[in-house]
Amino acid sequence: MRPWIVWATGLLAYIVAVLDRTTLGVSGLPAAERFAAGPGLLSVFVVLQVVVYAGAQVPAGLLLDRYGSRALIVAGATLMAAGQLILAVTESLPLAIAARAVVGLGDAVTFISVLRLVPRWFAPRKIPLVTQLTGICGQLGQVLSAVPFLALLSASGWTAAYSSAAAFGALVVVLVAALVRNAPDGVAVTAETMGVRETIASVKTVWLRPGTRLGFFTHMGTQFSVTVFALMWGVPYLTVAQGLSAGMAGTLLTISVVAAICAGVVIGIVTGRLPHRRSRLVLGIIATNAAAWTVVLALPGRAPLWLLVVLIVVISVGGPGSMVGFDFARTFNPSSTLGTAQGMVNMGGFVASLVLMQAMGLILQAAGGLSFDSFRLAWTLQYAVWALAVVGILITRRKARRLLALQDDRMLLEGIDR
């Protein structure tokens, strides 16, 4: 029972992190009024958060390896609560942007810290499924921002809503400090203090492990499409290019969450029972993503609703599919550097998403604004990312398999020697 209590408390911290991550997305119009900002400035909030999140992954991983999950989750929740409290009381745009960066920094350390708890507290066979459950249950934070947070924002105003989010974060700090431990009693968790040179060497060593890079390209190829769709360009595409109402676009995003939850459970079970088939599963997810987009983009006009539903469901599988990347990191890295490896893996999808969001914006602007034709051209940029990810997966998979074969041969020889 204790492992589930520890995990559930960490999961609550991640749910709150997702809540804090998405609050600004559901309060765009009030934010524009409060800070007297147009759409261009408001987009800075989204881009800044992704930049901070992606850029902080390796430092967060190093800190995680040094100080453990409990300290990092508490620090992350504290940062997010502070950022949300500043947003609640300020009317200054520069200060609000800085506060959003603080929220992004706290968010950056939370997810990989919660993931780090899973192999410490659960048996190896359960790890893939619990990892998937962590990712998909964390999306409940998006539901919290879309329903109770938005309702409070509408009923009581900006300050009350964001202050409540900050209070929720403070509650998480207390619960994590009281209930979470880095490992079960009696399991030693030690970390050496390293200087700058040793730290750089450690980062290089972790990156050069083929399993780390396999996880990086896995995360990149599976996650970016649904992330870009959900964070920035999905709703404009559905409403402007495909002619759907805002309500119908919201319904499709809800379907996306449901599809991700269902797919996550299946992927967790499959990867737990068939660990040697994980890369094939990932390549299959990437192929179906590319195929679904190809069908939609090849149409000369708007797609029928059923096809858009299929597209949403297919790309949503990429979210839980990206979690396989963390499983690769766990398989090919020792516990002492697992946090660094997971941080590197987590960069894959978010760096690709950031680049694609910006590149699509430039294409849309160069093509004359938001339209069916400009969106169709902009979405084709995805194929370059898929190609890079697939090549990276195939190369690093071969190297990882060769490394495993060498390790198996060494263990066999040692057994014979004994």
TrEMBL record:
This is Putative galactarate transporter. The keyword Transport applies. The chain crosses the membrane at residues 41-64, 71-89, 95-118, 130-153, 159-180, 214-235, 247-269, 281-299, 305-326, 347-367, 379-396. One of its GO terms (cellular component) is plasma membrane. GO terms for molecular function: transmembrane transporter activity. It comes from Mycolicibacterium chlorophenolicum. Coiled coil: none annotated. It is found in: Cell membrane. Residues 6-401 form the Major facilitator superfamily (MFS) profile domain. The keyword Methyltransferase does not apply. Pfam families: MFS_1 (PF07690). Its main location: membrane. Keywords: Cell membrane, Membrane, Transmembrane, Transmembrane helix, Transport. It comes from the Bacteria. InterPro entries: MFS, MFS_dom, MFS_trans_sf, MFS_Transporters. PROSITE patterns: MFS. It is a multi-pass membrane protein. CDD domains: MFS (cd06174).
